[in-house]
Automatic annotation (TrEMBL):
Gene3D superfamilies: Jelly Rolls
Superkingdom of the organism of origin: Archaea
Alphabetized GO MF terms: metal ion binding
Protein name: Cupin domain protein
Taxonomic lineage: Archaea, Methanobacteriati, Methanobacteriota, Stenosarchaea group, Halobacteria
Residue intervals of the Cupin type-2 domain: 33-89
Organism encoding this protein: Haloquadratum walsbyi J07HQW1
Length: 108
């Protein structure tokens, strides 16, 4: 069994000044914890893997191929492989759990 505490992972990211950390990895999926603050930039990008984002805390917006949608704690976003996206306009600290399937980088 693998278990993590999202708030602890986010606090560690803040302390290190980092944006993300891979918390769990198996052959079939990987889980990252991501953290953004107001003023941070997330460039438009896509991944080869399917992605599921769970907003753990905070608020901001996501740009999915030009469609901008507000996101806040409790929201879940699913992206197909190759979908261009970026997070922006962080109102406060935005913390998310991101599930990649298969594991991030496995399709490269």
């Amino acid at each position: 069994m693998n278990a993590i505490e999202i708030a602890e992972e986010a606090a560690e990211l803040e302390q290190k000044g980092e944006e993300s950390t891979e918390s769990i990895r198996t052959d079939s999926f990987s889980l990252e914890v991501m953290r953004f603050e107001p003023g941070d930039e997330d460039p438009m990008h896509a991944h080869a893997e399917e992605e599921i984002y769970h907003v753990d805390s905070g608020a901001g917006k996501i740009n999915i191929e030009g469609d901008i949608t507000p996101v806040s704690a409790g929201d879940v976003i699913h992206l197909e492989p190759g979908t261009d996206h970026q997070f922006l306009e962080f109102e406060d600290e935005l913390v998310m759990s991101v599930l990649y399937a298969p594991a991030k980088g496995a399709n490269q």
